[in-house]
Design a protein that fits this description.
three-stranded antiparallel beta sheet; binds nicotinamide-adenine-dinucleotide; single chain; 17% strand
Length: 358
């Protein structure tokens, strides 16, 4: 499968135009286009503009609507509970996280539960928003509205979503630490990218519908299985540890409050995310910013100084890889494989937009 390099600004302009043409506001389009393109720039193509065809399919099927808007159910600090009503996820989540940031800056802490948003994208994005506001943040997110795709530890069939977890630690006057990952060993979107590229996935990441190890990404997509084959599953990262974290994310984000759970609700062409977050003002723990900076940076220096197994693969802190990728892709362009591009171009055509013109 071949790919082309696209300038981030051009792709962002295209995505923005598509979202506005589909009926969302300029502000909603700006945030969503910015979020998706930043995910590509960060190296997470699984959560970049390749998601757009799915969003537009949801719209076409009547499962996603520009008129859906989030509504706060509780704003009494330190709790912020927002019903997202399956609104477009990126603007809904950003707005909720920004509101929680304001709450945490005022009172030292905020506990946010955003319920039933459409796909909110890369969770580290919100840890970055919180870090920019000077806040520590922790996120647990579930994935519902579609069939389970991750097997519990020791199971040969799926019961979880890829339930991501992210933590952000701001470093005064420097780049934040951003840990952000799916609790499956591989994000489902990364299997989609491999499928679109016609490439195998590494060994140990997925099983087929009979629970056998496989490297063929088609086994984890309904449209990829043939005849009476059953859908396979992604494996959790870290065996029982990742599986346990996934279970906790489901219950914290959606399970306690009755939001869409992976084992509930009709399954349509959509992805529903609920998010549970804790935001903390670090100045309430250590008021001296210079001390905080020195303590964090001296520890990061200690970790980064560990002798690498392979000098070509240096020891990194969480967030380093995404920052390096942003520089490289900002300079060289974002690689989009032909299949992903043709899906985006087809969605654009339905709104009278020529993707090649951007
Ligand atoms: P991943 O496996 O690439 O891990 C990324 C994390 O590991 C980052 O914090 C990164 O800085 C760190 N990292 C990567 N390489 C490193 C290295 N060599 N040394 C030290 N740290 C390193 O991420 P993933 O599991 O593929 O998830 C990709 C994205 O998918 C995430 O942004 C996640 O939030 C998102 N996601 C979203 C949903 C959803 O439904 N919205 C579901 C699942 C995943």
């Amino acid at each position: 499968m071949t790919y082309r390099l696209h300038r981030a600004q051009s792709v962002q302009a295209l995505v923005h135009a598509m979202i506005v043409k589909a009926g969302w506001t300029e502000a909603e389009a700006r945030e969503t286009a910015h979020h998706l393109v930043l995910a590509n720039l960060s190296g997470h193509d699984s959560h970049g503009v390749g998601m757009l065809p799915l969003y537009f399919q949801s719209l076409l099927d009547g499962n996603l609507s520009p008129s859906s808007q989030p509504l706060a159910r509780n704003t009494l600090a330190p709790f912020l509970i927002v019903d997202a009503h399956v609104a477009l996820g990126q603007p809904a989540a950003r707005q909720a996280v920004e509101q929680a940031c304001t709450m945490a800056q005022a009172g030292g802490v905020a506990i946010l539960n955003l319920l039933d948003a459409h796909h909110i994208g890369r969770i580290g994005h919100y840890a970055e928003v919180a870090a920019e506001a000077g806040l520590l943040s922790m996120f647990w997110v579930n994935v519902a509205g579609r069939p389970p795709i991750v097997a519990p530890f020791a199971a040969k069939e799926a019961r979880f979503g890829t339930n991501p977890h992210a933590i952000g630690i701001p470093v005064p006057e420097s780049d934040p630490i951003i840990l952000d990952f799916a609790t499956s060993r591989m994000a489902h979107g990364k299997a989609r990218v491999a499928l679109n590229k016609g490439e195998p996935v590494p060994e140990g990441y997925i099983i087929d519908g009979e629970g056998r190890p496989t490297t063929e990404p088609r086994h984890v997509f309904q449209h990829g299985i043939h005849g009476d084959e059953r859908l396979g599953a992604l494996l959790p990262f870290g065996d029982h540890k990742g599986a346990g974290l996934s279970l906790i994310a489901e219950l914290l984000s959606a399970g306690l409050m009755g939001a869409a759970r992976i084992d509930q609700k009709p399954q349509k062409s959509w992805i529903i995310n609920s998010l549970f977050a804790v935001l903390i003002d670090p100045a309430r723990l250590e008021p001296d910013a210079a001390q905080r900076k020195q303590r964090i940076e001296s520890y990061l220096a200690f970790v980064r100084a560990a002798a690498p197994q392979d000098p070509a693969n240096p020891v990194l802190a969480p967030g380093d890889k995404e920052r390096a990728m942003r520089l490289a892709r900002g300079r060289d362009g974002i690689p989009l494989d032909d299949e992903t591009w043709s899906q985006i171009a087809a969605a654009a055509r339905r709104y009278g937009i020529d993707a090649e013109a951007f």
